[in-house]
From TrEMBL:
GO terms for MF: zinc ion binding
Species the sequence originates in: Austropuccinia psidii MF-1
Protein name (record): Uncharacterized protein
UniProt KW keywords: Metal-binding, Nucleus, Zinc, Zinc-finger
Chief location of this protein within or outside the cell: nucleus
Gene Ontology cellular-component terms listed: nucleus
Keyword Zinc-finger: yes
């Protein structure tokens, strides 16, 4: 074993080294050279915490947790003396974001002539709408590389004009306006308007030829359409309305028809809960609802969005 370490890795037993100037590595020196360890400092700690929080999807307030501080102190007691607060950590995250943005712009995408993009909009669990943009290109080693270059919050309606504005704002940050060869999206109708708005701004982009629908989404829609057609109910011969398929958000479904004193309170509460869920799970519906309430009641004080919570935990 000692011969193997000495011949292949240049590691020798310190006791067997004849001269202190001999060019041999000890095991500690070899490990240190193989994995150089960064020195602990306020800056290195903030950077490590930012990457840890983002990778694990944790809140910045975790730095105030006594259990988390105890864990860091267990690793190294000096950490507690330089542990940063939540506000400084948030500011450091902004610096790291701009550093990575500059690195992507100047080193990864600066020499790319043709870049493809995929984009999608969705609503997060905290009822905030986002638009993500991913750039795809072939690097110098002929490997397909994908980089998320933007995640923008969508304000207002998810219209084609709004999505186009957000998309163009993101690619302009990387000076990729003239490098678009294709944009892949789902088959939502608003994406057609988005493509036309992008075409009006980027002459190289053609909405007809460079806008590509997601094949997986197309297959998903086709399968649902087939299942709906195969499993649909036969038409009602008596032309009676099927109340089971009635839209639960219809104004006629909010309350039961008056029936003397036999009001169905459980049904009313259930439909109010459906209405709250219907409004709460869409930023656009929630905004319109709050605006309508303020107009109807002539309220100068904005309505709190938390009043639309569909479920309230009780004891």
């Amino acid at each position: 074993m000692s011969q193997h370490l000495h011949l292949l890795h240049g590691i020798a037993n310190p006791k067997s080294i004849s001269s202190p100037l001999a060019k041999h590595n000890t095991m500690d020196q070899y490990v240190h050279n193989l994995h150089p360890r960064k020195a602990l400092s306020p800056s290195s700690l903030k950077t490590a915490l930012v990457y840890f929080i983002c990778d694990a999807d944790l809140p910045f307030s975790i730095t105030k947790s006594p259990a988390f501080q105890a864990l860091l102190e267990l690793c190294k007691s000096a950490v507690t003396n330089i542990l940063v607060c939540q506000a400084r950590l948030t500011a450091h995250l902004t610096k790291i974001y701009f550093y990575h943005q500059e690195f992507i712009c100047n080193y990864l995408l600066s020499s790319k002539i043709d870049v493809s993009f995929t984009t999608d909009a969705w609503t997060s669990p905290n009822i905030t709408a986002y638009l993500a943009v991913t750039a795809h290109y072939i690097d110098t080693e002929f490997k397909l590389t994908s980089i998320i270059i933007g995640l923008a919050e969508i304000q207002g309606d998810h219209s084609g004009a709004s999505l186009a504005t957000q998309f163009l704002t993101i690619i302009l940050c990387y000076d990729l306006k003239q490098n678009i060869i294709s944009i892949t999206t789902d088959n939502a109708s608003v994406n057609n308007q988005m493509a036309q708005d992008i075409e009006a701004t980027c002459p190289k982009f053609c909405a007809k030829d460079n806008m590509v629908g997601c094949m997986a989404h197309t297959i998903h829609l086709a399968s649902h359409g087939g299942l709906k057609a195969l499993g649909s109910r036969p038409p009602n011969k008596n032309n009676q309305v099927d109340n089971n398929n009635e839209n639960p958000m219809s104004i006629t479904s909010l309350v039961d028809p008056p029936d003397g004193l036999n009001l169905q309170y459980n049904s009313i509460i259930g439909k109010i809960s459906l209405l709250a869920s219907y409004l709460h799970h869409s930023p656009q519906r929630r905004k319109k609802f709050i605006t309508t309430v303020n107009l109807v009641y002539n309220s100068d004080k904005p309505t709190n969005a938390n009043t639309l919570l569909s479920q309230v935990s009780t004891r």
